[in-house]
Amino acid sequence: MDGLSPEFWPLVFVGFAAQLIDGALGMAYGISASAFLTTMGHPPAFVSATVHAAEVFTTGASGVSHAWFKNLDRKIFFKLVLPGMVGGAVGAWLLGNLDGNLLKPFVWVYLLLTGILLLRRAWLRSEPGLARAPSHALGGVAGFLDAVGGGGWGTVTTPTLIARGVPPRYAIGTTNAAEFFVTLTISITFLFTFDWDRFDLVIALLGGGVIAAPVGAWVAKHVPPRAAMVSIGLLIIGLAVNGLILIAR
After folding, report:
1. Tell me, what's the pLDDT at 90?
2. Which of 148, 134, 141 is nearest to 110 (CA)?
3. Distance between CA atoms of 41 and 209, rounded to whole angstroms?
4. H helices within 150-224, ranges in order?
5. 3-state secondary structure of 150
6. Contact 15/204 with Cβ under 8 angstroms?
């Protein structure tokens, strides 16, 4: 590699912005980075491998930051992390033989309904609590979709936890901490199933992401729960509507 590619500095900015959103709201790093790489014309397996290689470092920094600000729930963490690692490994292994686009309509509809539920909970303060521990299936499904789609762990996990009554601060922090282990598993699986050599793009994404990680964790601790739910709900609805429109085209 004689010099930096034209994609390098734009991806530094993408990595920073994506991790800032992910650290503050518990989602959208992988989706944001994957969308950008996809618009460059890179194939799905390349996109997922590149994003997850970068996420090993950004999720590690984010997880440590959330632990420092005490945004973690250990019970939920262990319910998510092991199934997530298994689901992520299976998804990465199958990516070469499965068209991830077939799953997208179902994922976007699920996210749209979840976003609407979050807005309802944010505005109807008298609604009875729905707090309950997540099932192991949540981590497994989220890990699988994350590997196949190049992102989606936080987008599936965080709003589901909040919709079940988990305070946004702990839903976001725990999701980010568990994501490190899921991402590491996916990346290791890709090392044995996919060959790619664009490590300059990995460095660009993780460089911007590591810088943004502490800022996102600080925001997650101080943002009011109701405002966090509204922000996450609107973000999820926007992503879902945009995804469905793109599929319809």
Report:
1. 94
2. 141
3. 22
4. 153-163, 168-193, 199-222
5. coil
6. yes
Listed in sequence order, the residues at least 6 apart from 81 whose beta carbon sits closer than 8 Å to its beta carbon are: 139, 178, 181, 182
- The rounded distance, in Å, linking the Cα atoms of 103 and 150 is 12
Q: Which own/partner contact pairs does 98-106 have at CB distance under 8 Å and 24+ positions apart?
A: 98/148, 100/44, 100/148, 100/149, 100/150, 101/247, 103/145, 103/148, 103/149, 104/149, 104/243, 104/247, 105/244, 105/247
Q: How many angstroms separate the CA atoms of 127 and 206, rounded?
A: 40
> Residue 223 carries which DSSP code?
S
pTM: 0.75
- Copy the structure tokens of residue 228: 């966090």
pLDDT surpassing 60 at residue 127? no
Which carries the bigger pLDDT value, residue 125 or residue 118?
118
Residue 111: enclosing H or E segment and its boundaries? helix 104-123
Residue 221 in tokens = 């601790």
Q: Which two tokens stand for residue 56?
A: 């090993």
